[in-house]
Amino acid sequence: xxxxxxxxxxxxxxxxxxxxxxxxxxxxxxxxxxxxxxxxxxxxxxxxxxxxxxxxxxxxxxxxxxxxxxxxxxxxxxxxxxxxxxxxxxxxxxxxxxxxxxxxxxxxxxxxxxxxxxxxxxxxx
Length: 125
Fold this sequence. Notes:
- By secondary structure, the chain is mainly α.
- The protein folds into two domains: about 1-80, Orthogonal Bundle (Arc Repressor Mutant, subunit A), CATH 1.10.10.10; about 85-125, no CATH class.
- It contains six helices and three strands, in the order H-H-E-H-H-E-E-H-H.
- It has helices at about 1-5, 15-30, 40-50, 55-65, 85-105, 110-125; strands spanning about 40, 70, 75-80.
- Strands 1-3-2 form a three-stranded antiparallel beta sheet.
- Helix 2 packs across helix 4 (about 55-65) and helix 3 (about 40-50) crosses helix 4.
- The model has no long low-confidence stretch (mean pLDDT about 90).
């Protein structure tokens, strides 16, 4: 069940909607959530996690804007955006900042490559 995949930390400084967003992304990357799967309704998800419906709605909206979720009369359905070029550019923007932070902490290119390989291995690439 989806709720078992979610690990929301109510003590974290990270916004709950972003935690939910990130957990769904990780679920897709690790194949625990697949394209075509339907997520619980906003109300159901809020009840399952014990959070406000607006928080779930915001997470779903961000996922929709990112091309990961399609929201229609059937509900919230996982979809993978076929626009790879756009996805590569978005990833580059996000990595640029993350790598700059690592650079400031003296993390080497080799250490970054090891981390990337470890993460990709988790996703079964």
